[in-house]
From TrEMBL:
GO biological process: adenylate cyclase-activating adrenergic receptor signaling pathway; positive regulation of MAPK cascade
GO cellular component: plasma membrane
Major subcellular site: membrane
Topology of this chain in the membrane: Multi-pass membrane protein
Full protein name: 5-hydroxytryptamine receptor 5B-like
InterPro entries: 5HT5A_rcpt (IPR001397), 5HT_rcpt (IPR002231), GPCR_Rhodpsn (IPR000276), GPCR_Rhodpsn_7TM (IPR017452)
UniProt GO molecular function: G protein-coupled serotonin receptor activity
Annotated ranges, domain G-protein coupled receptors family 1 profile: 51-332
Keyword Nuclease on entry: no
Length: 351
């Protein structure tokens, strides 16, 4: 969603080349620091593409992953791999251009802006769908059956891509201008009404949803843990002996796990599930907010107040948002051991 990071103020005396880059100077166009930053951005692009592609390949090859919630993970990986393949490379080309000008023509500008908004918005809403799925699976276990879960997840995926397409195609249908040949500028429509609708639909609405979801999951987890403590009975002497014995030989580990799972003073399966869901959704939302909120705050403020935000900060916020596509697969696969086993099996078969 970062196509509007081109600055309307084209200053030929300050030709910044990349995030935090130095000015274009005669025989030394890039400083060492600029080259290092460029290398990091290239590595980020390649790693984002390969990691999400690995997740997609694993889901396609392993039949056990052909079900909910892995279809939501697959949809997220598709949006993130498209960000790495279609959006980030052209953003790098633009960063390398003197003054961050767009020199690739109007047609490619429109294509880039469209895919930028489409893929980034879809990635954000896919994260929201994953959070909603975790929330319903924890709080509505009886109503949220496998069949209902499959239907709802398919509806969420369809709505995600339809909404993203609507936001991305609106400027192409005349809602504002994205390309300025005089200033060699390629950016999102700066029309105030479009800015409010696009930023609201692409970020602020899903932000409210995920914050509400996390609050409800956290509240449900605390409620059940509090109820268990109030209804707890005194532990049996055998359970205490198992706890003491667990400190000694390693063979007692099975008995210890059984005590944790089934004894009245340990966590039940439901409590463990709720705690794990709260942790996973919390990390997913936390990274999502940290990555995207600086960018969308500046994108909402700039057209409304005509503020002149330095291009270097726009680039920093843009690439911070792109990095969310790298963190997404790391987070939701880290909480599923089946992915780790599937990755190992995939590489073993390839060898």
């Amino acid at each position: 969603m970062g196509a509007n990071t081109s600055s309307a103020n084209v200053d030929t005396n300050a030709s910044s080349s990349v995030v935090g880059g130095s000015a274009w100077r005669g025989r030394e166009p890039f400083s060492v620091f600029t080259v290092l930053i460029l290398t990091l951005l290239v590595l980020l692009t390649v790693a984002t593409f390969l990691w999400n592609l690995l997740v997609l390949a694993t889901i396609l090859r392993v039949k056990a992953f052909h079900r909910v919630p892995h279809n939501l993970v697959a949809s997220t990986a598709v949006s993130d791999v498209l960000v790495a393949a279609l959006v980030m490379p052209l953003s790098l080309v633009k960063e390398l251009s003197a003054g961050r000008r767009w020199r690739l023509g109007r047609e490619l500008c429109l294509v880039w802006v469209c895919f930028d908004v489409l893929c980034c918005t879809a990635s954000i809403w896919n994260v929201t769908a994953i959070a909603l799925d975790r929330y319903w699976s924890v709080t509505r276990q009886l109503q949220y059956t496998l069949l209902a879960r499959r239907r709802i997840s398919n509806v969420m995926i369809a709505l995600t891509w339809l909404l993203s397409a609507a936001i991305s195609l609106a400027p192409l249908l005349g809602w504002g201008e994205t390309y300025s040949p005089e200033q060699e500028r390629c950016q999102l429509s700066q029309d105030p009404s479009y800015t409010i609708v696009s930023t609201g639909g692409a970020f602020y609405l899903p932000l409210c949803v995920v914050l509400f979801v996390y609050w409800k999951i956290y509240k449900a987890s605390k409620f059940h843990m509090g109820g268990r403590r109030r209804n707890a009975v005194a532990p049996l002497p055998e359970a205490a002996q198992v706890k003491e014995a667990s400190q000694e030989p390693q063979m007692v580990f099975t008995a210890r796990r059984a005590a944790i799972t089934f004894q009245t003073d340990g966590e039940t399966w439901r409590e463990q599930k709720e705690k794990k869901a709260a942790l996973m959704v919390g990390i997913l939302i936390g990274v999502f907010v940290l990555c995207w909120i600086p960018f969308f705050i500046t994108e909402l403020i700039s057209p409304l107040c005509s503020c002149n935000i330095p291009p270097v900060w726009k680039s920093i916020f843009l690439w911070l948002g792109y990095s969310n596509s790298f963190f997404n697969p790391l987070i939701y696969t880290a909480f599923n051991k089946n992915y780790n086993n599937a990755f190992k099996n995939l590489f073993v078969k390839q060898r």
